[in-house]
């Protein structure tokens, strides 16, 4: 390790100073051991470069699926705050960003709202919606601004033989970069040759340059007895269900050993999450909990005894009830306002239930009973429904334009909320180009 580290930092420095027109670096950060070491060696290498030569922008990107383990969310939030503060104080060209799925793509809107069955290894609908798409949109935004981008990942050959083969297959001959599935994007894995034992030795001996220590991270791994979930940028990444830094709702595996480990080590407030996660897993295979018809975009198909469709309205309401009860119990016991589901998701779920002809119970009724409030979300639901209906009516002859327009509106809204419309025109043009290219591919004869 003592020989590898200086070489890795020197290589990072060379790569950083290589371009005349420096392509931005995008560092995938999950808060786990691999991405933490990656960020640390890059940060340390950057500190050794004279300030006047630090011309390459570095974006630290953390993808939040909105169903991350609450214990990890709290830890990562503190880490991201520290990263932002330290980067500013040290004058480094590093900015920190969090990506999230669109409202219509969130886990609860799909599972409770639309009744999507819980993900399986062969039907991981969650990966694309919660992880790949949000990160891809961010990468494409930076590519549209700079022409190209380099994605830095904490993937290591030591993690698995299949990962080592994949990294080797996509490597560009004579270079440390490998091709990415996105046009004009490349992948750089600086710590690919570091072994797990070496990584932990480094983390124990070298404090993070942004302040603090790695003691809490080490404790989280020790208590959960598991690995971490890398930034997902394509569908070849394996499930994070067995990992320490994954989604608490993951049903791709039969048991969530990491959450079990945390509970057995004192985090018993997470037991309601485990109960809900296990119920979601069980009901997936319960014939009585599933419709006998499949849903399309606007309606259900005819009933068929052999069809396993979405969850029934009864089961969806049970899921929502357990979720809100768990959220309230955790908020009461932990003394904070930890959210397991957002208000916007609740409104979107109610709208979806209305479209499916489910008028009782209402989302607000369930919420008010659990929280002992008198919230009325009918106005929000009606407004959202009118806007969507108007858009679909306008696009009757070109229904594929609905998603395009929603995406463009979402893009403009996010820019406005950030009070930063820099690059908006390029982002819009790029999104239109991608739409036309995809439409062209679908039109090609098979």
From TrEMBL:
InterPro entries: PAPS_reduct_dom, Rossmann-like_a/b/a_fold, Sulfate_adenylyltrnsfr_sub2, SulphurTrfase_DndC. Residues 287-301 have a biased composition (Basic and acidic residues). Residues 287-306 are annotated as: Disordered. It comes from the Bacteria. Residues 27-207 form the Phosphoadenosine phosphosulphate reductase domain. Pfam families: PAPS_reduct. NCBIfam families: DNA_S_dndC. This is DNA sulfur modification protein DndC. It comes from Spirosoma utsteinense. The lineage of its organism: Bacteria, Pseudomonadati, Bacteroidota, Cytophagia, Cytophagales.
